[in-house]
Amino acid sequence: MPEFDVVELEPTDHIEPGETAPDFTRPLVTDEFWEDRSLAGLVDGRTVLVFTPMIGSFVAKYVWDELADRGWLDRDERFVGVTASTPYGVSRFLDENDLPVGIVADPANEVADDYGLAHDLDGMAGVSEPRLAFVVLDADRAVEAIWVADEWPEFPNYDELESELGLD
Amino acid sequence: MSEQPSTDGEPTITFYRLQACPFCERVTRSLKEHGLEYRSRFVEPLHSRRDVVKRVAGVRTVPAIVDHKTGVTMAESANIVDYLESTYGGEDVDSATPAGAAADAGGED
């Protein structure tokens, strides 16, 4: 019997391929500054939204490290993070990890909620954050593919993910 | 154009600012008074983490603005407020008002 619990997450009614990803405007944080950007304005080609738990969690760290190590952040697709941290937290994370990417700072977690990807943190009243998810959008913001964690924690098999999301 | 500027379009002015910095708020007020569209870029409190401001404006202090309409880049709140007034103050404003008149020590943070 395992001595640890991998918690199964509740099923969610998240966005599905074929739907248009809801537009939103939030601060997009890079390691230099943050400014309001709309998703509609950001998407000018194939785009991968990467929803992660809060910055500071090992989940967020592992995911961004993996994407950088695999060279995915240098691909033609544009990778855009979404998380429920403050811009300051995101900014320092990007700086410390030398990540050439922008992450949307949404402390209220409304974007993840809107996409059906919110996760209320057990034992921390009032804290909601995205569950780990990858959403591939075409140039018109139509969802092409999506991978959503349904365990806590769960990391994708990145090799499989690459083909599931049509990134290979 | 909507009152709330779209940051994805091309607002007239890019405004580098620091959260809760009074010198920056002075510029904010002036931008609003003149009905100017601006794109806010918030930067870090640490000067060492303000490479973008250094690159754009030559200094690491904020506020700093880039006016895409005139090509002017400027730092220090007193200078910026004077510039906005003389550039966008309207016809009834005496453009000959000496800039020095309002130039209490150049605000910066």
Automatic annotation (TrEMBL), chain A:
Superkingdom: Archaea
Gene Ontology molecular function: antioxidant activity; oxidoreductase activity
Stored Pfam families: AhpC-TSA (PF00578)
Residue ranges annotated for the Alkyl hydroperoxide reductase subunit C/ Thiol specific antioxidant domain, each copy included: 17-144
UniProt-recorded name of the protein: Peroxiredoxin
UniProtKB/TrEMBL annotation, chain B:
Domain GST N-terminal: residue ranges: 11-92
PROSITE patterns referenced in this protein's UniProt entry, alphabetically: GLUTAREDOXIN_2 (PS51354), GST_NTER (PS50404)
Gene3D superfamilies: Glutaredoxin
Organism this protein belongs to: Natronococcus occultus SP4
SUPFAM superfamilies: Thioredoxin-like
A Pfam short name: GST_N_3
InterPro entries: Glutathione_S-Trfase_N, Thioredoxin-like_sf
Official protein name in the record: Glutaredoxin-like protein
